[in-house]
Amino acid sequence: MxxxxxxxxxxxxxxxVGGSSLLRRRIQEMGxxxxxxxxxxxxxxxxxxxxxxxxxxxxxxxxEEAAHIVVENLR
Amino acid sequence: MPPKHLTIALAGNPNSGKTTIFNNLTGTxxxxxxxxxxxxEKKEGHISRSGYDLAIVDLPGTYSLTPFSxxxxxxxxxxxxxxxxxxxxxxxxxxxxxxxxxxxxxRELDCKTLFALNMADMARSRGMKIDGRKLSELLxxxxxxxxxxxxxxxxxxxxxxxxxxESTTPPARTRRVNYSKDIEEAIGRLKHYMESTTDGLxxxxxxxxxxxxxxxxxxxxxxxxxxxxxxxRTILQASQALRKHLTDRFDEEPQIVMTDERYGFIxxxxxxVQTSTTQERVDISRSIDLVLxxxxxxxxxFIFFIWAMFQLTFTLGEYPVKWxxxxxxxxxxxAEVVLPAGILKSLVVDGVIAGVxxxxxxxxxxxILFFCIALFEDTGYMARSAFLMDRIMHLIGLHGKSFIPxxxxxxxxxxxxxxxxxxxxxxxxxxxxxxxxFMSCSAKLPVYVVLAGAFFGARAGTVIxxxxxxxxxxSIITGRIxxxxxxxxxxxxxxxxxxxxxxxxxxxxxxxxxxxxxxFLRKMGTIILLGSVIIWALSSxxxxxxxxxxxxxxxxxxxxxxxxxxxxxxDAERRAIQEKSEQIVAELRRMExxxxxxxxxxxRLGRFVAPVFAPLGIDWRGGVSLLSGFVAKEIVVSxxxxxxxxxxxxxxxxxxxxxAASGMTPLAAxxxxxxxxxxxxxxATTAAxxxxxxxxxxxxxxxxxxxxxxxVMAFLVYQFGRLLGFS
Lengths: 75, 727
Fold this sequence. Notes:
The complex is a heterodimer of chains A (75) and B (727).
Chain A: E1 11-17, H1 21-29, E2 37-43, E3 50-54, E4 57-61, H2 63-66, E5 69-72
Antiparallel strand pairs in A: 1-2, 1-5, 2-3, 3-4
Chain B: E1 4-12, H1 18-26, E2 30-34, E3 41-49, E4 52-58, H2 70-82, E5 86-92, H3 96-108, E6 113-118, H4 120-125, E7 128-130, H5 132-139, E8 143-146, H6 154-166, H7 181-197, H8 206-214, H9 218-227, H10 229-250, H11 254-273, E9 274-276, H12 284-292, H13 298-316, H14 318-338, H15 343-360, H16 363-379, H17 381-395, H18 403-408, H19 413-419, H20 426-435, H21 445-456, H22 460-484, E10 496-497, H23 506-540, H24 551-564, H25 571-599, H26 601-608, H27 610-613, H28 620-628, H29 635-643, H30 652-661, H31 666-678, H32 683-693, H33 696-723
Parallel strand pairs in B: 1-4, 1-5, 5-6, 6-8
Antiparallel strand pairs in B: 2-3, 3-4, 7-9
């Protein structure tokens, strides 16, 4: 499933990062690489962007960008 | 023997504590400037230590050296071209993986590298223990433990840096990222090919160049072709073939695979050196965020903070602004007395003092504003405000962080445009700077008050509100147009770190505030000074105006007449005569000034451009006022006053009546207000645009664009209004 479909409080593992080359690289460089666990901390009050916790730090990502990230192992 | 000179570069992620360490190392002996050609702040500090003269350069905070953002390009070019003796990489202990990602890229450049493992105490309190010795062994890099905000480890950091710079062993070439077999093979082949065709084509490490070519790095490719057009092209062909091969092999572009593999390598290192004891960390920062970005309370709190910043900047700032204005008046008064009447006095009083005074009075606003912004940035709230606002700003094609500069524009465009510095992407910054002037600044308000007050009476408030709204709507439209044309494709992904909240440090806040304000004072001062002298010259020359009446003689006559009479009159009568003569003199002086302005170059210019303003329903006097408004928007009112012979008194009714008497209609007044709202920004703002965009082209573009929009909008208002039967 897609990262953008996750609800607040859910954890999942990244399987694949898609999208344009630039976007993919940017996302990867911030540490969102294959196999990383991430936790959906919350969505912004206007439902976009979303806040994620991974590897001990917090980042924000737009929902449309999160739609390029495929995750699995939802829990 | 002169002290030996060493250059030490500081590299690190944003929020890694790099700035704090830089401040600790250099204290107040730092120079803030811009990196050549770009608007990224460059900080440099010089210190001497154990017989060495150390230049410490603070590289822009980046997560990577992939040249996507301007900061990354700047940082990488410095490392490549300036070859600092030592690079200190700040490793944020609580973000080991991401810090090491940047560090491995720096090591691939064959720089002498030293790690400052920062805030390890904080990481430990969160249950993370890092084995510094093991890290040093694994990567073959010296590691120094530092605590930036307690000033710990700084001496050792410098000592180690000097030792490393003096050591003759080249940086370790082993113990760095090993890519998978296919990629290593491709790198090897490309490297070999490069070395055989041309030796030392680029003055960079060959392995690094090969790696970058496989990653399709635009800048490296350009430099290669520039250095050797012939051989470069064949190498590029070879690298393209290898890239294609790898893409087929991995079903993925090589740069994506390589980034994955770098992180894989780092994950291995982290597993070795870091031990986590607690599972779920207790985090104050998270609790603060529960409130500050809360679904319902987030926005009200944000609005309150913005309101408070606005209040502080423009309401509290008002007091010192008044003092400065008083001081400027005092200086003008002193010059008035000291200097002999004539051209020099006019230059000093009306040109230099008035001009510089008009800039320096912004200083308190700017200091307070930058203090607030530094507070937002240093605490980490700035990232949250972008998080909250991004959805709305994204509609205009902008980043969440653009909100604050645009909002500040309602106060004054100068600090607003400077506040755009907080945006990381240069295109976002330029777009924000281009649309901010449409936010109606406070200096335009007096113009609206006079015109709307005179022509719209009770509906003046609604009209003024409509003008503000028009500015906002046009800024949105402009944003959307530019984003899809001029500044296309630059909509950087909103992958933004939300750093933990931190207690701001007074020293850092002060340095932040002072650096930025100082830049404003120095650079603006020079441009403004020049500009005001030019405007002054345009409005005071030529001196030999052929007056229709001999004002000097008439003034003398009036004065003499008043003085010669009193002997035969009573007290009251004498006073009445005195007053009468003063009135006459004032009237004469004003008429003289009106004629002078009419005949001055700016007056002639106004009449010359009158045909341009005619379709907008604005006469030549309005045109001249608008031209003079370039210095500062408030001046539009005073020039109108002079030209309409309404006296320089701030009495609004008088000017309004004079305007109405001159044949101005409500529709023409509306057209003029629309023009004032939108046309070219004032001199100080123009100077700020020049500075912040780093180019005259953007400044001229902004002037041209806003003035064209102003003309078209005023034209539409006036002509459509007439068609609809208004007058």
